[in-house]
Records
---
Amino acid sequence: MIRTLVLVALATMPTLATMSTLARAGESARDAILADYAAQSRAADPAFAAFSAQRGETLFRTEWAGGDPRTPSCTSCHTADPKNSGRNAKTGRPIDPVAVSVNPSRFTDSADVEKQFGRDCKSVLGRACTALEKGDYITFMAGQ
Ligand code: HEC
C-alpha cells in the first residue's frame, strides 16, 4: 500500500514539475509580448497607463460592422466563453480554447500572435487592431 503511494508520488512529481515549468515559461513569453505592445501603446499615446481586461472583453464581445459579415465578432469563432473550444465560422474547423487557464500556451509565440491578430482583426473589425487593443485582449484572456 505505502509502496504504491510512493510509486504514484514519484510518477506524478516530474509531471507536475514539468507542467509548472511550462506554465512559467508561457507566462514570461506572454509578458514579453505584452511589454512590446505596451511600448508601442506608449509611443502612440504618451498618456497610456496600463492595459485593461475590461476593454479587452468589450473588444472580444462587440459586434463590429466593418468586417466580413460572417464574422461580426471575435465570438463568431472563439465562442462567447473563451474556455470553450471554438469553431471557425468560415471553414468549420475546430479551434482550441483561447482562455489561458485552460490553454497555458496561448499568446506565447509573438509571430503567431501577430499573424492571427492581423487576420482576425481584419475579418471582424475590417481593420488592423491597435497595439492597445492587442494588449487589452491578451490581458483579458490571461485572466480567463
Ligand atoms: C474566422 C474565425 C475567427 C474569428 C472571427 C476570430 N478568430 Fe482568432 N483565431 C482563429 C483561428 C483559426 C486561430 C488560430 C488557431 C488557434 O490559435 O487555435 C485564431 C487564433 C487567434 C490568436 C492567436 C492566439 C495564440 O495563442 O497565438 C489571436 C491573438 C486571436 N485569434 C485573436 C482574435 C481576435 C482579437 C478576434 C476578434 C477581433 C478573433 N481572434 C476572431 C479564428 C478566428
---
Amino acid sequence: MLHDPFLPRARYLRMHLSAEKAWSSPSLLASAPASCSNGCTARWAGLPPTCPKSKRWHSRAQALVLPDAIALPAIGENLRIVYTPTAHDRIALSYRENASLHLSGAVADPQRCCLALQGWLKGHARQHLGVLLQQAAQETGLPYSHYRVKGQQSRWGSCSTLGNINLNYKLMLLPAEWVRYTLIHELCHTVEMNHSRRFWALVAQFVPEYKAVHAQMKNAMAQLPGWVNVS
Ligand SMILES: [Zn+2]
C-alpha cells in the first residue's frame, strides 16, 4: 500500500488498487491535491485518522479497500476472497485451506466485510503464531509463560516481565523470516527486558542478520493492506 500522493499538480482525488510489495495484498493507492492534509490520505489507506475533515472521503475510500485475495507469507498461504451477497443480515465466512475464503450475507457493507476478515485472520493467527512461537522457543531454548494474539496499532509484539508474549495478528501478512525475527526478539526479552548490547547479542545468536531484518520491517506497519486497519 502506498500513500505518497501529495504531488503539487494533483487536482482530484484518485484511487487505484496496487500490489507493488510482494508480501502485501492488493490495496488502495490514494492521491490527493496538495491542499489536503497528510491525515486525510493516511486515513483513506486505513491508517489512524488525524484529519477530522476527511470523514466523507474515508467512507468512499473504504468502499474500495476490499481485497479479492489475501497473501499470508508468514505461513505460505494464499487465499482467494469470494463475496456472495444474500438476504442474510450477518456475514458468514467459510475457509478452505490454502484456497479461499467465502464471505456471504451482508457483504454489500465493506466495513463489515473488513471486520469479518480481521476477525477471521485473528483466529487464524492465534492458531499459527502459537505454533511458530513454540517452535522458536524450542529452537532458542527460551521459554515463555503465555501468549496472546492482539491487534496492536503500532507494535508487532511485546513481552512482559512475567514472560507473557503478545503478538500482533497482522504478522500473518509479513514474510516468514520477519515473523521468525519478531518471535525471537520477544523471546529474548524473557532474558533481557531492554534493548541493551546484551539483548542484541542474544538476538544475534539466533538471527545473525537481525539488523537487516529490523531495518526492512521499519515501514511494514504503514504498508499493510488497508482492510486490516478499517475500524
Ligand atoms: Zn524489543
